[in-house]
Design a protein that fits this description.
2 strands; elongated
Length: 115
């Protein structure tokens, strides 16, 4: 999703409104996921079912670009997905989602971001 304003909670609110609350977002309805919420009963897994998969909001800026306020030059930043979030995505794909849901205006290729 492309954020075009600086409102602190806007992306979280929009995703919740679209039915895609961010994992771990207490304010906008995102559930804190434990291993047991993802891995079906009876399926072996190396972590206890009561362990949290990620202990923070699953929100990541893979790419940021803006005009620098002093130099007035365009600046760009990229950042790889952190291990805990990559693990969450991997678990969801393996045990729940075979195809990633898509939203209009998505600007990050998740496959590229996590590989």
């Amino acid at each position: 999703m492309q954020q075009v304003t600086t409102c602190e909670h806007q992306i979280r609110l929009h995703l919740q409104h679209l039915g895609y609350p961010i994992v771990g977002d207490d304010i906008y309805g995102g559930k804190h996921l434990k291993v047991g919420n993802i891995v079906p009963r009876g399926v072996p897994f190396p972590l206890p079912r009561t362990d949290f998969v990620i202990k923070r909001q699953a929100l990541h800026a893979a790419y940021l670009a803006f005009t620098h306020p002093i130099s007035d030059k365009p600046v760009e930043f990229t950042a790889p997905v952190h291990g805990d979030m990559a693990n969450l995505i991997s678990m969801l794909r393996e045990h729940r989602f075979k195809k990633a849901p898509t939203l209009a205006n998505t600007v990050v290729n998740l496959e590229t971001a996590i590989n």
